[in-house]
Every structure is written in C-alpha cells, then in structure tokens.
Amino acid sequence: MSKLVNGILVSEKITPKIFINIEKGRLIKINAIIIHQTGAATAKHTFNSYEKGGNGAHFLVDKEGVIYQTAHLTKKTHHIGKIKSKCFESGHCSKEELKKATDILYEKGKSYPSRILNLHKSEKKKNYPVRYPTNDDSVGIEIVGAFNKAIKKYEAVSKIQNDSLKWLIDQLHCHYAVTELNIYRHPEISYKQASEASSAAW
Amino acid sequence: MRIKWIFISIFLVSCSYSNGLPDIAIISVDQSGTDQNKIEFCSDFDMDKETAQAFFKQAKIITTLEMHSEYSYLPCFVKGKCLRKNISCSWEIRAGGTAYLEFDGKTVAYGCKSCSEQLIGNN
C-alpha cells in the first residue's frame, strides 16, 4: 500500500526521481491514466531526455520492473500529443458532431499535421469523457521498451514490467477515482504507432 | 598552402553534409499508401521526387525516443528509392513529418517539424 504525500506516491516499491524540467504547471483533476512505451532500450535514455526538459510522463517502469516517479501527480506533463476525436473513432456521437470532426480531418488543401492539430483544438473544447483525455487531466506511465525501426514494432512488455504496471495502477486506483474504463494505451487516443504498449496488461 | 587546402576540403565536406545529413539523392517515387486501411484519409497524400528531396534536405536524424514523444504517427506514406554515398537505399516519408531511410542494412529515422507545407494533399 502506498501513501500520497504532496503529489508523491510513497512506497518502498517506488523510487522517486523527479525531473522538474518535464513538469508543466498544475494538474488539478486526474480523469485518466495513459500507458506508453518509451521507444528506447534503457531507462537511462529517457532520463537523459528528461534532464533536458520537454515531453515526459509521471512514472517510468524500467526493464527490471523498477517503478520510478518522474513527475509530481500535482503537475501536468506533456505525454500525449494531439488527441484524436473520440466521436470520429467510436462513432458514438450525433451526426452533426461526426460531420464536424470529419470535415476537419479531411479538409482539402490543408497539410496533414495542420488537420490533426485543428481537430485536437476542436476536441480540447469538449469535457471529459466526451473527448479523450489530454495532458490537462491525465497521468502518464512510460514502460521502457525499444522500437525496432526495421520491422516498425515496439518490443513486447515483459511479465515483470506488467506486474509492476498492474501494481502501480492499483495504487492509483486507491488514490484517484479512475476506473478501468479510463485507462488507455497511447495509440488509442493519439496519433502514435499502433504497437506502442499493445502488449501492456494490467 | 597545404593547410589552406585542408581547411577548404573540410569546408566543402561540411557543406555537402549540411544539417549533419549525408547527401541523399531521390531516384524514384514508387508507392503511396496507408498501413491502417485509412484509404480515404490518405487519399491525397502523394509527393514528387523534388518534394521528397526537399524533405530530406530539411529533415534531421532523430532517435526512436524522439519519434515517440515529439511526432505524430499518421497512416499515410510515400515510398521510393534513393542513392546515399552512391549506394542504393530506400526511403519512406510519412504524413506526420517522419521518415525512414534504409541503407546498408540499417534503418535510420528522420523528423522534420517545419516540413508541413510539403505534406499537404494534392487536391
């Protein structure tokens, strides 16, 4: 069992390793948990990147299953990127909403990056859970795992990593009202390689 | 005099490897498509040799970690053949601003955040 103290999850199973450079303002509400894979073979690669600032997540599970907390749970981090349209992906919305999302996504004469940026901006105006979670209302968990460029696939998440992931999610369940329905693999909600975190289990 | 020529040689080499990239000559554009059956979304994603050449001129080599955290991965791609250091290679540019170059048994990832205007649909 863990304790939550000033945004730090305190437990002998968690190693605090906070990188203030990846923290981006106050995280007021936590609606969801997003599971990522790092795209790098070791935790050190990711820590080196976090030292420089930029994007990052709140937790990292390394190859040995060691859990590091890398950002306070009271702080936002940039771990998601541009969100997809939940309406467009699920089809569970009004015809008008679906048309609006479709029109943005398929807009002729606009570059592909600008289309998904415009859709992201449109989605952000909605409240959760009508939209997918954003950096403003979610916690990110990175699992160390390399991306094989030749076959364009992330390596499989190991049992020891999945055991740690499950334990960590259980702890977050205890402290926040985040149910199973509010846990997502990164590619479900953002434009990412489909195999990222596909073998994560909790 | 000899030192002067050494400096000129270094300058010429560094110019031909601008942005830290070796010269890549696009030979052909062979295929445009989608890897998630997103045919309609990708229907107007295409590019000619010159556009592909311009992409690689502006792009930089990125790590897979950077690719994961800083770029969107879109299902649309264009593929073709190229020459790098006079050895044949193959390339793939994706709609999210990333690319792969397969060369000498290795795959290198590229990213270009300022290439949006080149990733515009043709229609």
Would you write up a description of this structure?
The complex is a heterodimer of chains A (202) and B (123). Chain A is built from six helices and nine strands, in the order E-E-E-E-H-E-E-H-H-H-E-E-H-E-H. Chain A has 202 residues and is α/β, with parallel strands linked by helices. In chain A, the strands form two sheets. In chain A, strands 3, 4, 5, 6, 7, 8 and 9 form a seven-stranded mixed β-sheet that branches. A two-stranded antiparallel ribbon of chain A has the order 1-2. In chain A, strand 7 and strand 8 (153-154) form a beta hairpin. The longest helix of chain A has 17 residues, at 159-175. Chain B is built from three helices and six strands. Chain B is globular, with a radius of gyration of 16 Å. The model of chain B is unreliable at 1-21 (pLDDT under 50). The A-B interface holds A 36-40, 45-46, 49, 54-56, 79, 81-82, 105-106, 108-114, 116, 146-147, 149-150, 152, 187, 190-194, 196 and B 36, 40-41, 44-45, 63-70, 72-74, 76, 95-97, 100, 102, 107-109, 116-121, 123.
